[in-house]
PASTA domain-containing protein (Aquirufa rosea), 709 residues
Amino acid sequence: MAVGKRQNIREIITKRFIGFFILVVMLFVVLLFNLYKIVFINGEILRNDVFNTYIKERSVDATRGNIYSDDGSLLATSLPKYRLGLDPSVYNRNAISEKNFKEHIDELANALANFFQDRSAEEYKNKIVAAKKSGKTYLLLNNRLLDFQERKKVAKFPLFNLGEATKTGIVFDKVNVRYAPFGQMAYRTVGYLKDKVAVGIEGSFNAELKGTPGKGFFEKMDKNTWRPVEGGEESVPKPGLDIYTTLDINIQDIVESALMKAMTTYEGDYGVVIVMETATGEIKAISNLSKNSNSPTGYSESFNYAIREARDPGSVFKLPSMMAMLEEADLPLDMPVSTGNGKYHHYNGTMSDSHPMGTISVAQVIESSSNVGTMVLMKKVFSSKPAKFYDYLKKYHLIESLHFQIQPNPKPNFPVPAKWDAFQLLWSSVGYSTQYSPLQLIAFYNAIANNGYWVQPIIVSKATRADEVVIDYRSKQVRDASPLCSPKTLEKIQTMLEGVVTRGTANNIKGTSYGIAGKTGTAQRIINGRYIPGKYYTSFIGYFPVKKPKYTILVSIDNPQGHAEATYARQVTAPVFKEIADNIYLRDMKLHRKLSGTLPDSLNTASLSHTVHPMDQSILYSSLGLPRVEEDGSWLEFKMDKQTVQNTPLSFPAKTVPNVVGMNLRDALFALENRGLKVKANGLGTVVSQSIPPGSPTRKNLLLQIQLR
């Protein structure tokens, strides 16, 4: 009985074991099946899901091209910046890394706290220790971008300075940041890409500047951080093209200073200056200033009014009207025009002059900026054929868009004759009921300065890769093959523009040695569809030197205030034009003429010491009868004490700062800028000091200040 019982127990155990074994085998089979299913059936899908979640193929931005001025000075470039990250997992690898971590974590936390000044050393330590314990492979220590020098400093922090990054855990994530070496200069024109907003040259030439992105694999570190996977890059980015503008940084500086001074004085809502090189149509400077309470100066560049803002042009539009009338009717400049009591009534509208002028000549219609005189002549010439006036404006490029390189630039708002009402012909002839951008108007005036030939304004000359010109934008520039008008009409127009300055509405800026020609414009502003008395848009457009124009300049200021005389362009914008022209003339040696005339006899008994420009030596010595130095283009230190004369040729060693003490401003600028130096001058008279000692090493675009007295 006992034997049988033991046998039954054995059978039960055996059955149970067999059952358990079968169950284990079945589970193993199920496990193998699921493993097979995961690896071979669903494996590709699951692998892709994981790969797409933690490792992705992402676009690698190309290095953005640089933007240069006309002399090669950098206006915008991309500089590498770095975010500081950490791979805490390296401190868990072995006993040595654990030891290093324990010994230096407090020192590292203190260094980080002192450097970033945003959290305590204890907070930095807790953050790093927690990431290490959790096995994180990436921790963003601070979101602030570091420059290269800061990166070098951080790399020397405790723990980070113990070896290679793979051992110390330090990670520098590179970010390319746009940098403008000249700060806010031409800010809106050079432009930017920010918050999906693309403006200026940066925006309009983005396709050329951005290059061709590459592709690479990145590992997801946290919610917003991706880190490149080494060896996973599939294609290398192709850098963007470099863009060369026509901007002259010296003229741009002159323009911005003059406009800021005027805006501060007259408290305008916004102001615009454009400087165009007459023969080429190249824009040398653009400045746009508008009120900004957050700016220290009260003004900043927030909108490109020069290109995008279309306004009633006012009296500056009388010139294309007059050109069309002279072409159509060959009006003599001395022909009398009756303006009566200075008011012109047409249907229910009345246009007035600033004051009654009575009977004036055709020339005086422009010189005195008579609204009534312009309307009288317009009615006489075009009332029976208004469409002909429209055709002239079309020929003058005042109907269609300029297709300027910076986009968008609006098409002028000038209705076709079929849509004209009873006022359109006459009111538009004096610059009302139409809208034009400043750029559109300066292009027309520039044609008058350019012997009648219209050239399309450009601001970008070429796009390059290294030294290779990839795109030549000058070759695409539109140039009229024939002038806008006959030589006879052009001569009359130029005579009237000179008369505006010598005896007309801008005679307060006459008397320069180089001569100015131009036209004032004062238009009532439209607010909510109505012209408001006392609110004006003032402008002056002209060119200089008057005989051989090199530059055409537009100055406009909207809603000038703050002074009783801040009403007309004569007081507001014409003086800004003159200030800009004066400063450009001082800096452009090619505009200057040689000295002429004789020196007074009193100099024969006086003491005199001066640095003489090579161009002036022949005049000086022929007048004084002094011993002559061979003209080899050398500067001369001329010293005279009564009857004793000493002539010492000067030489300026190559690649050094010359000595300009004793020179006048013109000569000092010539000597310094020919060495590639950028000059800031203070005072009047002759140079008494210079900020960089003579003989110091020089380099291109080095800033040097000179004091004159």
In short: Residues 595-600 have pLDDT under 50 and may be disordered. Residues 25-57 form one domain.
